[in-house]
Design a protein that fits this description.
mainly alpha, 0% strand, elongated
Length: 127
């Protein structure tokens, strides 16, 4: 059986110094660090380089899901960089050509016929 030393914080031997507890908050979790290493193709990167990728690129990166993206945003915020999701355009896109609109309508009818519920993004409940 392994014996704990009295100086070991996990042994209840006292609280960690303030400097030691502040450092882990600035560290990126391993899963996100590995995903970013794969994205950059190297093992080192700076918060500024990650910030420069932008929200959408990080969102599409392999190995970075919703929770991972939130962890990266928090990590960037700890370094003084605020990465916000892009704003949704207020105006709808320009009118879709008639031929494409017919194809879309046909696809929607087919989906509804097979039991799917199809909604416009504007009709969805706000978050």
């Amino acid at each position: 059986m392994k014996q704990k030393r009295s100086g070991d914080p996990s042994a209840g031997g006292g609280a960690l110094p303030a400097a030691a507890t502040a450092v882990p908050a600035l560290r990126l979790p391993t899963l996100q660090r590995n995903a970013l290493c794969k994205l950059f193709g190297r093992s080192t990167f700076t918060p500024q380089e990650v910030f420069a990728l932008g929200y959408r690129r990080l969102q599409r990166a392999e190995g970075i899901g919703h929770k991972g993206l939130q962890a990266i945003i928090e990590w960037l915020a700890a370094h003084g960089l605020v990465l916000a999701p892009p704003s949704v355009p207020a105006d709808p896109p320009p009118e879709v050509p008639a031929e494409i609109q017919r194809s879309i309508n046909g696809a929607v009818r087919l989906l509804r016929h097979h039991g799917y519920r199809v909604q416009r993004t504007r009709d969805q409940c706000p978050e």
